[in-house]
């Protein structure tokens, strides 16, 4: 089985924020808000913080949603197939999301460094 790529070039970089609203995640993952709410019901791994009837996603949630999107839209998995993929993957590599988060953070820092160097 393939592992969804952490750097999907058509998606914007994930900003270094602690929490994201559903609208921000929708843009970052190129998925409509109602789809995010549906995936939340289907995938127990997506667990946004809920306060005052609002959802707040963290960076690992955004990475997970991008991974789900890749499985469903690019690799042709069904929802039940994607659930099985996560079930087997989490047992084998629980650090996958954190590795992707680190890669994304490094990429963001490299972008900042390029901007700083070009402004000199």
Secondary structure layout plus pairing:
Layout: E1 20-21, H1 22-29, H2 33-42, E2 49-51, E3 54-57, H3 59-74, H4 79-92, H5 96-118
Antiparallel strand pairs: 1-3, 2-3
Helix pairs in contact: 3-5
Please supply descriptive tags for the structure shown above:
3-stranded antiparallel sheet, 8% strand
Description of the molecule:
The chain has 120 residues and is mainly alpha-helical. The chain has five helices and three strands, in the order βααββααα. Helix 3 (59-74) crosses helix 5. The longest helix is centred in the C-terminal third of the chain and has 23 residues, at 96-118. The radius of gyration is 15 Å and the shape is globular.
The count of β-strands is 3
Distance between the termini: 46 Å
User: Structural class of the helices, strands and pairings?
Assistant: mainly alpha
Q: What portion of residues is helical?
A: 55-70%
Mean of pLDDT: 83
Molecular shape: globular
How is the main sheet built?
3 strands, antiparallel
Give the topology string: H per helix, E per strand: EHHEEHHH
Strand content: 5-15%
Contiguous uncertain segments of 5+ residues: 1-7
Q: How are the strands of the biggest sheet laid out side by side?
A: 1-3-2
The number of helices is 5
| Rg, Cα atoms, Å | 15 Å
Offer a concise description of the structure.
The chain is 59% helix and 8% strand. The protein contains five helices and three strands. The protein has helices at 22-29, 33-42, 59-74, 79-92, 96-118, and strands spanning 20-21, 49-51, 54-57.
